[in-house]
Amino acid sequence: MRPLTERDIRTSFVNCSKGEVKRLNLPKDFTDSPWEDLDFLGWRDPGAPERAYLVAERDGGLVGVALRATSGASRAFTSRSMCSLCLTTHTSGGVTLMTARRTGEAGRQGNSVGQYLCTDLGCSLYVRGKKQAAGDGITDESLTPAEKVARTRANLLTFLDKVTG
Ligand SMILES: [Zn+2]
User: Fold this and answer.
1) If you measure from the C-alpha of residue 124 to the centroid of ligand 1, how many angstroms do you get, rounded to a whole number?
2) 135 CA to middle of ligand 1, Å?
3) Coil, helix or strand at residue 63
4) Which region, left, alpha or beta, applies to residue 124 given φ > 0 means left and ψ of -120 to 50 means alpha?
5) Residue 52: which pLDDT band, with cuts at 50, 70 and 90?
6) How far is 66 from 85, CA to CA, in rounded Å?
7) What pLDDT, in 10s, does the model give residues 16-41?
8) Which of 15, 98, 105, 155 has the smallest count of CB within 10 Å of its CB?
9) Nearby residues of 12 by Cβ (< 8 Å), 6 or more positions away
């Protein structure tokens, strides 16, 4: 994706209030992000661990989504779970259920979309082999990194459509 500025990020959010956008903390050193290896910029709020955000390009514009991580309900150490965007398999804690408030009337009525995501939102790096997940390597995936990237982007757009649709 193209490098983003703080202004790009703060003006991209579609599912939170202006106050929330003002208060959210950007990732530390985000300007040094490996932009060419990212399908979206995703991070956990350094000042509020239950909050997470992702900003992606869609139709030439930017869509920012605020997420809330569900804590607790951690599974046994030996269990594995899979991120629904990048399909990376992690051991306990590597995947977190995150919910995004939907935009518009649906959001005002309290509707949200839940998705299992890599806890660190590092999907882009996992599919490119730039980051290794603990517990990965047991799947017999025959896809190339480029195919995994394409699949992750498709899953991401589907998710964004559910939030804004
Ligand atoms: Zn992922």
Assistant:
1) 7
2) 13
3) strand
4) alpha
5) very high
6) 16
7) 999 999 999 999 899 999 999 999 99
8) 105
9) 55, 62, 63, 64
- What's the CA gap between 29 and 131, in Å, rounded? 18
Looking at this protein, which amino acid is placed at residue 67?
L
Residues whose CB is less than 8 angstroms from the CB of residue 67 and which lie 6 or more positions away in sequence, other chains included: 51, 52, 53, 54, 98, 99, 100, 117
The sign of the dihedral angle between the CA atoms of 66, 70, 76, 80 is negative
Any idea which residue has 């939030």 for tokens? Answer: 163
Q: How far does residue 121's CA lie from ligand 1's centre (Å)?
A: 6
CA 75 to ligand 1 center in whole angstroms: 18
Task: Look up the pTM and report it.
Answer: 0.91
The position carrying tokens 């594995």 is: 80
Tokens 């009337």 belong to residue: 105
32: Cβ contacts below 8 Å, ≥ 6 apart: none
**Paired tokens of 97:** 């259920």
